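Regression test case RT-17, inverse folding.

Input:
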């Protein structure tokens, strides 16, 4: 009798597409379900670009996971022949004395990360598109860069299908229930399918499918705004992506076509979403006030009037750490949720860890601090 494990992946987005790829690569019988299709614009994977960073602002334990993700991003590109990531560096800027910047500098030095500290004068010479307030520091993460999210999700899901995975598109999962004798019943409008293990990567729909999570995942609506530079300085020097920590709490990425710059805001500026099926995609002009203020203070070479706006959803936890591990009391259900706006860069690593947990029941990677029952420090 075959011992090949049958694994369902619920949601083929940022994490689910990668989990399908890694599971299929290891010979599992993979069946995926998505209420839309890979690369759709209703979850957290939209917006044309996402940031990859080798450094982290809050928790040293993320660095090994970023290294794993780094290797797997290269592997996915090699296997698919797709240019999914451009290593153009990433600037991280914030108050020199703040806890996030102190953590960033100490971890980068201790871990031997390829980085460079830039003071105000150095930043002004090399990246004049950015203004650095008094008392702030900039760190250039040389291994950072830009990821193409929609293309990456489609590439990972497509590679999984090449390796034998099957994906049910436009097929919402209505219920997961333990099966008699072990395994999980996956219920859709088309019937019930029994699998050995289910990996739940449902993104903004996580609370609908798993309403009793041990840690809350709050769904928030985020706005991305694209702005055209008024000078050409924005695309000089390699045009790295950037992150501004508190008090500014924003990030940005030059668009791949070299025409505009995408700006996004932090969790505190996002409105809550009560029903992910009824996302309000209309951006009120009043919502643009924060973008205009940040541009005026920090990036005055950008036109504050946007040429494009898009609305997406993300799941956040109180601690800022995601939920990664077996659902408490359910050995056959693995959950990945609540990546709090910073998970896409980790997604191949999370796919690998999900495959470990689904096939072996454990993983060699240090993720205890991400366990669904672990509160974690507030970041």
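Golden output:
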């Amino acid at each position: 009798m075959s011992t090949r494990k049958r694994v369902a992946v619920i949601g083929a987005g940022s994490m689910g597409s990668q989990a399908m790829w890694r599971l299929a690569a290891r010979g599992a019988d993979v069946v995926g379900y998505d209420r839309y299709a890979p690369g759709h614009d209703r979850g957290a994977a939209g917006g044309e670009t996402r940031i990859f960073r080798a450094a982290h602002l809050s928790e040293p334990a993320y660095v090994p996971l970023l290294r794993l993700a780094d290797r797997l991003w290269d592997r996915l590109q090699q296997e698919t022949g797709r240019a999914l990531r451009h290593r153009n560096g990433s600037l991280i800027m914030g108050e020199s004395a703040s806890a996030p910047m102190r953590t960033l500098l100490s971890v980068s030095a201790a871990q031997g990360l390829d980085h460079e500290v830039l003071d105000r004068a150095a930043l002004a010479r090399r990246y004049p598109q950015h203004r650095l307030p008094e008392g702030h520091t900039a760190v250039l993460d040389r291994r950072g860069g830009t990821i193409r999210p929609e293309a990456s999700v489609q590439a990972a899901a497509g590679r999984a299908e090449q390796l034998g995975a099957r994906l049910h598109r436009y097929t919402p999962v209505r219920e997961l229930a333990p099966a008699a004798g072990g395994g999980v019943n996956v219920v859709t409008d088309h019937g019930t399918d029994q699998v050995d293990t289910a990996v739940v990567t449902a993104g903004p729909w996580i609370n609908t499918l798993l309403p009793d999570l041990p840690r809350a995942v709050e769904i928030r609506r985020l706005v991305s705004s694209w702005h055209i530079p008024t000078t050409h300085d924005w695309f000089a020097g390699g045009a790295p992506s950037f992150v501004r920590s508190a008090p500014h709490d924003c990030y940005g990425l030059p668009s791949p076509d070299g025409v505009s710059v995408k700006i996004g805001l932090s969790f505190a500026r996002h409105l809550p979403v009560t029903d992910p099926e009824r996302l309000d995609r209309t951006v009120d002009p009043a919502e643009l006030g924060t973008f205009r203020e940040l541009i005026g203070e920090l990036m005055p070479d950008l036109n504050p009037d946007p040429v494009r706006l898009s609305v997406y959803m993300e799941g956040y936890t109180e601690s800022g750490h995601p939920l990664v591990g077996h659902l408490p009391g359910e050995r056959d259900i693995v959950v990945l949720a609540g990546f709090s706006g910073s998970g896409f860069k980790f997604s191949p690593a999370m796919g690998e860890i999900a495959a470990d947990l689904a096939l072996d029941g454990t993983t060699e990677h240090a993720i205890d601090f991400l366990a669904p029952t672990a509160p974690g420090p507030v970041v």
